[in-house]
Amino acid sequence: MTPEIIQGALTAEMLRRAFANAGIQFDPKTERNSNVHGQFGTAEGWRNDQQRRQQIQAWLQANAEQTKVVLQNLLAQTNLQGEFENLVDYATNPSRLLQQIDDIVEDDSLHQTETERAFSQSGYIAHVWFPNKGTQSVS
Question: Residue 2 class from Cβ within 10 Å (0-12 exposed, 13-18 middle, 19+ buried)?
C-alpha cells in the first residue's frame, strides 16, 4: 500500500462525511447528488458557491479528530504510520486538499461536470475509494 492510496481513501471518506454533515444543499435541477464516485455536487457548484467551500473547510477543520480515527484505521496493518501527521494535515489544511479541489474543478481538460468525477479522473483519488449509497465507509 502506498501513501497515495491511503491519501485517496482518506480524502474520499472525509469529503463524504463533510458533504453529508456540513449542511450542503444541492440544486436538484442541476446536481443529481447520486454519482457512483460520491455525492459532491458539480464542478460549477463548487466554483460558484463559496459558501459550499467554506462549509466543507469548516467541517474538516472542526472534525480533525474524525480524520485521525479514519486514518488510524486506514494505516492499520501498513508500514505507513510515519505518514500520519502529513496525511492529517493534507485533509484538514485548506491550502492542501481544498486548493487541490479548486485546481481540479478549474481544469477544463478533465471534461467533467461533477466534482467527484473530475477528482477521480484527475488521478488524485481512484473512484473505487468513493463510498456511495450502496457501499460501506471506513469508521
Answer: exposed
Predicted confidence (pLDDT) per residue in 57-113, tens digit: 999 999 999 999 999 999 999 999 999 999 999 999 988 999 988 888 787 665 555
Report how far residue 110's alpha carbon sits from residue 117's, in angstroms, rounded to the nearest whole number: 9
Query: Are the CB atoms for 2 and 81 separated by under 8 Å?
Result: no
- From residue 95, alpha-carbon distances to 33, 60, 129 in Å are 26, 12, 22
C-alpha cell at 125: 483519488
Count, residues in the chain: 139
Whole-model pTM: value is 0.77
